[in-house]
Amino acid sequence: MKKTNLIAITTLLLLGASFFSCSNSSGGPQGQPQEQPQVQSRPNVTLNASLSALDIAQKMECGWNLGNSLDYRLCDGNYPCNYGLGAETAWGEVLTTEQIIKTGIQNGYKTIRIPVTWFNHLVDANYTIDPQWMARVKQIVNWAIDAGYYVILDEHHSVRDEIERPLQRFAGYNIRSGDESESKRFLEAVWKQIAAAFNNEYDEHLIFETLNEPRNVGHGHAWFPAPDSCDECKANVKFLKECNQLILNVIRSSGGNNANRCVMVPALCSGLQPALDLGLEMLPVDSASGKLMATVHWYPLDGGNTGHYSHHFDSATKNSIKSNMEALNQKFVSHGIPVVIGEYGAARKAYDWNTNQPIADYVVTYQDRLDCFSYLASFGGKYSVPLLNWDADNKWGSGSNTIDRKTCSLVEPECVAAIIKAWKDARSAASQAEAGSQEAADKVLYDAQGGAGYKVTTSGRAAYWPLDAAVDLSGYKYLDIEFSCSAGAGKELVLQPMSGIQIGGHPQGRISVNAPIAANTIMQTKFGTNYGKYLDYSTNPATEVAITDNYFGSIQIFVQDSENGYNPVDGIDVYVTKVIATNVAR
Known about the structure:
The protein is α/β, with parallel strands linked by helices. 25% of the residues lie in helices and 22% in strands.
């Protein structure tokens, strides 16, 4: 979350506010962090790798951020720096307790995002994270896991508005030309430690988020990238993808549960429009199948949650929510990539951090928040998009928090309940519709109706049977391909459904040929994003490629010599007579 001003360190060191927090469960004196958080070792658990990111997103529903606690971002400018455990209350929030963490899930939330800043907790020139800080983060994550949440752990404010340019060593990272080397060095070192600390003790309920609001700090387009017209922005898009790839590689290479853990990935500034502009191109290449999530931040009533750009929930905002949620579904969810709105919200009142005075034209009302966020949640449930409120109070008690950490209660329980209900009701309706789709009759995509069928003569691996236009077959599991073939003994026929959207295909069907295949032979191939990877025969040797969508546009057809190195055989006639999408396994 972007903050527009800083609070003096001398005042932030005061921990007195913590004395008003609800029951303390941290094991130390009430109102101050223990000098060494007590974190018991946890038994190893098995991550359920069969669950896709979309499966998990449907379980995450609505949630909240533990904002302005572990994400404090200042340093004295002498690097490496270690602010210590006092950072947790330095922005005025009370000391986090186990009961505070439980409050959200006891009131219907399913997910908690735990923002953590790491650059100001380094103890040496090797980028070593302060063991006490890591222990405190683990303690809070453990409370959330034990409470039953899905937990998102991120790298939050090591890019920040006050970062030095050029980037100093140990100061974090910056998505800027010239800062690549130090940024990558920092991110690799920090994420290696995070991945090591959070691995086999945590199952699929723990999700990593590579970066929070990554951007080119100080650039005129930092919050509104324009890669189509700005060369530096274009370079920033490329560099951010490299950073996301580096972090994902670090996570996967740590092995264990992290080899298949869900990972959330942002576009520049975690922005909605930058994500929509790039679509699937914003995502790194993943060695795991179906484990990536896209994430965006979206404040539809108050841009940036600053108080300076507020408005009522009007028809324009309503239309914007509808069109943008439909676009997120089209660009990501329909391709098996869920989207998490990692931050949304609006303050009850707004104050100018520079003058300490109320912002006179701030207009967001309770009814605005209730109507707007319930409407947003209805699309969230429909498209399996979890929503996480930015929960942070301010010194005036008028922040965007839904949880009162001093009393362990909801600030506006009716509003929270309405948002959660809207999400659940929409997901239930969508699930019923999806179930009906899966139970629907077979979908005939092509039928020669007794004729000879579509003739394809094999030519290497370059021959295709084309559909008139690519169609979305979400909800279908298989393709039945009916054909006849003139190949003889010692040959192998391969039929591979191709996307039409993604450059690539789906798991191929293959049959060994000992004699010419009679008419009306049916080969069934698995279909869709749930089936992992396919062999791409356009490369030599063939390579495995992850399936990222449910679109179907054509069938690649070739015959190979199964007795002589599986080389392709030219001049074989294959007649396709029928293609049917089905859920009936053969």
